[in-house]
Amino acid sequence: MTAGLDSSLPNGAEASIDMRFHGGAGGSEKQVERTGNVCTASAHVITAVIGSGVLSLAWSIAQFGWVPGPAILFIFSIVTFYASLLLADCYRSPDPAFGRRNTTYIDAVKNILGGRQEWFCGLAQYGNLIGATIGYTITSGKSMVAISKGHCLRHNRHLSNPSSCNIHDGRYLLVFGAAQLLFSQIPDIHQIWWLSIVASIMSFSYSFVGLGLSAGQAVHGTQGTAFGIGIGPGPHSVSSADKVWGILQALGNIAFAYSFSSILIEIQDTLKSPPSENVSMKRATSIGVLVTTIFYMAVGCVGYAAFGNDAPGNLLTGFAHSKLFWLVDFANICIIIHLVGGYQVYAQPVFALGEWYASQKWPKSNLVNREYSVTVLTPRIGVFRFTIFKLFWRTLFVLFTTIVSLVFPFFNAVIGLVGAITFWPLTVYFPVEMYSKQSGVRRWSCKAMALQSLSFVCFLVSLSAAVGSVQGIISSSRRYKPFEF
Question: Where does the chain cross the membrane (predicted)?
Fold first, then answer.
């Protein structure tokens, strides 16, 4: 990734360069040098999509099986691709080629739809951002546990009771939270471009490691069944109700993996013209979604072939006994490094919103507006500037996400919920509504009915996935004791 897109976050990647309600350009033209092209935009799309969500795809396919699983993945890619084409025409308004620029997603919603839609978009975006920080905290904790558990198993092979290596998430969630307390004091998102680049490299590293390890295991025999986990009393079967809940939760996991629409406008804002930005963005989206779909199909299907219906929720946790333990540890370290940076790209817009609101609410307060400076080691290294409110607000947010992660450390259920509640509004609803209004689609025309049908079906899918994920959280909570260290 280049520094030109500060929010270059894998998968999820759903963060925005500047998503404050009133902090965007408001549709006004900025004197910004835009040098991006189809190649750079394609790279941004690929990097934005491929991330921690890829780790849940083998488990998701296990809920469906060989017949429906890959088809569901493909359908999500088609819906994401089509909705992204509609959204690309909303970068400029009212004319897609020559209108005024909308430099952020929320600018586009504000200028094309306006009114309450802007607030609905803001709620969806910020819900996505906050949910992602919680999901990333949980995922990093799982990776730390995987490293620690693998180390324990390798050094205690003589133990007759493997449960002696059961390790709780709590201490590692606190470690990750402590690291975020430090990184969260970085002034703003424009100063963490280097963290995004490191995060992007890490995401590709652990994704390819997971694919390679799965392929190596699948060579010895392909696992899985036509329709996934069976229903019945058998040791590898579940009740019909649990089968349904698993399918619904898997839908949310896949939605989380494919979601990148909330930063599409920001990516498009890096493109030079001519040709028109919407033309270049559509080409970039075609390339990006195609590459991502092939990669997701490979990871999901090969992972399922390796583990079958016993596929773990997080693919890499299934290799605790692998002889290539050093490679598994490397992949988990890559996940942790990626999520340290990923957390910040999601959190910084939330920080910015809170600080903007406080400065508007209390413009004369010293606690909010008086800036203090502390020299970091030497003046050459830098000067740390902060306000009392900024220090308190950012610390409070990190504590909140860490506590929620301690109470609900359930990887698949949490990312499924985040994917479910944001997929419909950000990936489908707003692109359909903005495109329909800007293009003058007649209300009861065939095209309008088709677009609204697509939106309604995706709404039902998101709603079902949300219900399944909530049930998964409730079910897991019954068997889990929070705050175990």
Answer: 38-59, 71-91, 192-213, 244-265, 286-306, 326-346, 391-408, 414-432, 453-474
Tell me the CA distances in angstroms from 318 to 225, 310, 314, 315, one per residue in order: 19, 9, 7, 6
d(CA 294, CA 71): 13
Taking the alpha carbons at both ends of the chain, their separation in whole angstroms is 38
pTM: 0.80
Which of 311, 350, 305 lies closest to 20 in space, CA to CA? Answer: 350
Asked if residue 451 is part of any domain, the answer here is yes
Domain count, the chain: 1
d(CA 357, CA 142): 35
CA dist., res. 71 & res. 226, Å (int): 12
Structure tokens at 19: 């998503």
Q: pLDDT digit string (tens) for 30-64?
A: 456 777 788 878 877 777 677 777 888 999 999 99
Helices (H), 54-115: 57-64, 68-88, 105-112
Cβ atoms 348, 192 nearer than 8 A: yes
Query: Is residue 23 situated within a structural domain?
Result: no
Give the span between the Cα atoms of 171 and 66, in whole angstroms.
38
Q: What is the pLDDT of residues 411-470, one digit of tens each?
A: 778 888 888 888 899 999 999 999 998 888 888 889 999 999 999 999 999 999 999 888
Please name every residue paired with 230 in a beta bridge, in sequence order, or none if there are none.
237
Query: Is residue 365 classed exposed, middle or buried when 0-12, 13-18 and 19+ CB atoms within 10 A define those classes?
Result: middle
Instruction: Look at residue 24 and tell me if it is in a domain.
Output: no
| Full domain range(s) for residue 164 | 38-359+370-478
Question: Quick one: DSSP state of residue 18?
Answer: -
The full DSSP string for 466-477 is HHHHHHHHHHHH
Token representation of residue 325: 């333990």
Token duo for residue 204:
């590709």
DSSP state of 424: I
Look at residues 17, 238, 220, 11 and name the one whose alpha carbon lies nearest to residue 107.
17
Q: What CATH number is given to the structural domain containing 334?
A: 1.20.1740
Residue with tokens 């991502």: 292
User: How many CB atoms neighbour CB 478 within 10 A?
Assistant: 6
The total of other beta-carbon atoms located within 10 Å of residue 160's CB is 5
Amino acid found at 51: G
> 112-127: buried (b, 16+ CB within 10 Å) or exposed (e) per residue?
bbeeebbeebbebbbe
53: Cβ–Cβ under 8 A, 6 or more apart, which residues?
11, 12, 253, 256, 257, 258, 259, 415, 419
Is residue 33 situated within a structural domain? no
Which tokens go with 24?
Answer: 């965007």
**pLDDT score at 382:** 60
